[in-house]
Amino acid sequence: KMAAAAGVAAAAGLWSEVNRCGQNGDFARALKSVNKILQINKDDVTALQCKVVCLIQNGNFKEALGVINTHTKVLTSDVIAFEKAYCEYRLNRIESALKTIQSASQQTDKLKELYGQVLYRLERYDDCLAAYRDLIRNSQDEYEEERKTNLSAVVAAQSTWEKVVPEDLGLREATYELCYNSACALIGQGKLNEAMKKLQKAEELCRQSLSEDSDVTEEDIEAELAIIHGQMAYIMQLQGRTEDALQLYNQIIKLKPTDVGLLAVIANNIITINKDQNVFDSKKKVKLTNAEGVEHKLSKKQLQAIEFNKALLAMYTNQADQCRKLSASLQSQSPEHLLPVLIQAAQLCREKQHAKAVALLQDFADQHPANAAEIKLTMAQLKIAQGSVTKACMILRSIEELQHKPGMVSALVTMYSHEEDIDSAIEVFTQAIQWYQQYQARTNHSCCVFQPKSPVHLSLIREAANFKLKHGRKKEAISDLEELWKQNPKDVHTLAQLISAYSLVDPEKAKVLSKHLPSSDTMSLKVDVDALENSHGATYVRKKAGKLTGDNQQKEQGQGEVKKKKKKKKGKLPKNYDPKVTPDPERWLPMRERSYYRGRKKGKKKDQVGKGTQGSTTTGSELDASRTASSPPTSPRPGSGAAVSAASNVIPPRHQKPAGAPATKKKQQQKKKKGAKGGW
User: Fold this and answer.
1) How far apart are CA 308 and CA 314, in angstroms?
2) Do 10 and 40 contact (CB within 8 A), yes or no?
3) What is the mean pLDDT of the chain?
4) Is 414 in contact with 398 (CB distance < 8 Å)?
5) What is the pLDDT of residues 456-501, one digit of tens each?
6) pLDDT for 665
7) Which SMART domains does this chain map to (predicted)?
8) Rounded CA separation 328/312 (Å)
9) CA gap 483, 447 in Å, rounded
10) What was the pLDDT predicted at 646?
11) Euclidean distance between CA atoms 146 and 515, whole angstroms
12) In angstroms, rounded to a whole number, what is the distance separating the alpha carbons of residues 21 and 31?
């Protein structure tokens, strides 16, 4: 009994110590006292709960979860549900945390708060929005501002990743976090200028908030502003201000922020700016995307975008195996996604395996008909690159949902015209026009005889008619021109084209239609004749015309006046011209072709001593410019044109001085003294 009494007294003292340490925030000492209590009674529920809390406060989530799982009989889900779910959440076991919360018999406010966080991490934004609305509606404490911030973050995520138009929540943007989330929602809607203004307001609020604390340094403020500046740089990048964006991105990286997610996003954006240039910088930046914990900081779409860019960077750096490995991994994760197969096809094209690339794309199009249109466009592009224009046209015409589009019709007609296949081009026009006729018949249920056609339909008919007329198919153009004229009987240009077409097929019909042409009296051009006559061009024409008329009148009147003939200019003669000497009859021929040409005398300058230092000779090796010219750099600077040849760095021989040239300086100076003005 005495031992039991001593144990109870010791336990009471230990509990006092635990209570005091807990109030002071010294959880390490509190944990030691709790462990001593558990030595007295290992199944003490309160002590076990306190131990779990101390471990959580010290950041030992794995150990805390181990204690909970070891004492499941004592620490039931009703007792420890929140602590268990929180440990799982912090250990990034999000699915397990969700199950723990849902299995709890009683949903406390703490569990509801954690439930909202878990749903956000799982990207279940609709459920998350409902959870936070319920919390804000039914809670009244000092954490209301934090809940509103989380609610605005959910709305921003919906706008960014799901392209949902955010509703106005009526939140007063009094904090920089709320302003930042509002800016993110605006970016998702494409309202970049408004988003930039919100971010500038968020920056101002952040500076004001942090400057009130005397312990906060300027470096701390800049570190807190890093995420706001990162979003500003992203807007600049979207607006095409890549230089400004790149400068701001690099400034953030120099600050070395602790947020690995922010660093990964910035590094990825820099890689997208670099593209296939400055790949060495991109290879350095890609290391930031591989930091530990990045996968838990970013959304699935962000992580996917980073992986895509890694595969593209591997392709640009000629790491073919790495590119194939990354793209294959991405395709296994998202079989229906277009980018992985497009990257694989691009890599095959770089290896000159165009046939394999087309086969790969065809397989994907067969397996995923919903995405076949974009894949077939790429296949057509590859066929054109190979010079197979007709096959490219066949692929394009197989895309049924695009056959009637004006852009597709224009492309096909241009390609067929290039191949001089006019019949196929006309067939493309005919199919597109028929599609619009059928569409109009389906959508227009009125009983009227005359139905006006859509602008696109009329535009296609006009283009078809013009194309047929251009290629001499006037008979085939008649039906199109009649349709256009019926739609607009006042169109004189169409009527004139129709008459021209009928004149070759049915002259009588052309005469009948010509009666519809307006008379010359009704065609008033509304031209200011005086202004036209006084213009510079008209004055010149009038003067010339006047001269010609005067000449004609002179001829008609039969006046015997002789026209003034233009004086021929005397040709210039050479300075040494002597009229007494007969000019050389072969002077117009090149010297080599003249009968008296004997050729140059050879051998005179053989082994001649040069004019340099005594005894020096000008050998052939010294005149070889390739020996003295600097060699080109081994690698071009980033951004330089790849088409510039290495030989452009070599000085041409005619600009190269011989090795013995410096020695001739004295004699050249002497010549200059004599009055010579020439030189190098």
Assistant:
1) 10
2) yes
3) 79
4) no
5) 877 888 888 888 888 888 777 777 777 777 777 777 787 888 788 7
6) 43
7) TPR (SM00028)
8) 13
9) 19
10) 36
11) 81
12) 9
pLDDT at 229 over 90: yes
From the candidate CATH numbers 1.25.40.10, 3.30.360.10, 1.10.3720.10, 3.40.640.10, the one assigned to the domain spanning 1-106: 1.25.40.10
> Which H or E element spans position 551?
helix 536-557
Distances (CA, A) of 250 to 203, 281, 288: 19, 11, 13
Print burial letters for 95-110: b (CB count within 10 Å at least 16), e (below 16).
ebbbebbeebeeeeee
Beta-carbon contacts of residue 297 (< 8 Å; ≥ 6 apart): 259, 260, 261, 264
Residues contacting residue 576 through CB under 8 Å, at least 6 positions apart: none
Residue 675 has pLDDT above 60, yes or no: no
Residues making up the chain, counted from first to last: 680
What's the rounded Cα separation, in Å, for the pair 153 and 130?
Answer: 13
Look at residue 627 and tell me whether its pLDDT is greater than 70: no
Residue with tokens 């087309």: 358
**Residue whose token pair is 């009948």:** 512
Which CATH number fits the domain 414-517, given the four candidates 1.25.40.10, 3.20.20.70, 3.40.50.1110, 3.90.1150.10? 1.25.40.10
Q: Tell whether the model's pLDDT for residue 388 goes beyond 70.
A: yes
Q: For the residues 215-232, what does the mean pLDDT come to?
A: 91
Give pairs for 515-519: CB < 8 Å, separation 24+.
516/489, 517/492, 518/492
Is the pLDDT confidence value at 279 over 50?
yes
Residue type, 441: A
- Top-confidence residue, 451 or 348: 348
- Rounded to 10 degrees, the C-alpha dihedral 458/461/465/467 comes to 110
**Residues in CB range of 529: below 8 A, 6 or more apart:** none
Q: Is 532 exposed, middle or buried (0-12, 13-18, 19+ CB in 10 A)?
A: exposed
